[in-house]
Amino acid sequence: TNFLSFKNKVTFSMIANTNKGLDDNYVLIDGRKVLKTAAIYGANASGKSNLFRILTIVILMLRASNNTDINAKLPVVPFKLDKECLDKPSEFEIRFITNNIRYVYGFIADKNNIYDEYLYYYPNGREAKIFDRSKTDHYSFPQSDEKILNEIVAKTAPNKFFLATATNWNYEKTKPAYDFLTTG
């Protein structure tokens, strides 16, 4: 939402529809049909390249986060064709599966700050929180991990990703998600 040529929420999904047949085109993961491949097509200037640009920018921001100066600007570019969007942050969410576990990672940011950031996973088919960051510096964690993660919070600047910082400080629960998102 509100990034490059995307003003409103846009979803790209690899979950197959409920049509019967074409069994060679998907794999079953947790009882869901997940497409093996997809094609993106459309008119010129319809946002095809920007979809890939978004993924690339997210990957690069996460990779660089631990080496980013605390005064550096994030490469977040809001939708420019609506003046109301210029002062609003951009929103990103990526749902993925790695090591047979489903994850949901998302964040809300502008060029100066990461306002919200969250990582959830489904280790036993049910949602479990790894971390949730809101309003730049309010965090919530599972009670069992609060002590170690609160120490990592102190090492996370407003323009840095907690996912990257926690992984850098050897927090094992963030490592699979970080590795998946940054080794693209």
Structure characteristics:
184 residues; alpha+beta; five-stranded antiparallel beta sheet; 7 strands; globular
Structural description of this entry:
This protein is of the alpha+beta class and 184 residues long. It is built from 4 helices and 7 strands, in the order ββαβββββααα. The strands form 2 sheets. It has a 5-stranded antiparallel beta sheet. A two-stranded antiparallel sheet has the order 1-2. A hairpin with a 4-residue loop joins strand 4 and strand 5. The protein is globular, with a radius of gyration of 18 Å. The two termini are 22 Å apart.
H/E element sequence:
EEHEEEEEHHH
Q: What's the total count of β strands?
A: 7
For the record, give the distance between the C-alpha atoms at the N and C termini, rounded to a whole number: 22 Å
Name the average pLDDT: 92
Helix content class: 10-25%
Number of helices: 4
Largest sheet: 5 strands, antiparallel
C-alpha geometry: globular
Which structural class fits the helix and strand makeup? Answer: alpha+beta
Q: Low-confidence spans: pLDDT under 50, at least 5 residues? A: none
What share of residues are in beta strands?
15-25%
Could you tell me the radius of gyration in angstroms?
18 Å
- Order the strands across the largest sheet as they lie in space: 3-4-5-6-7
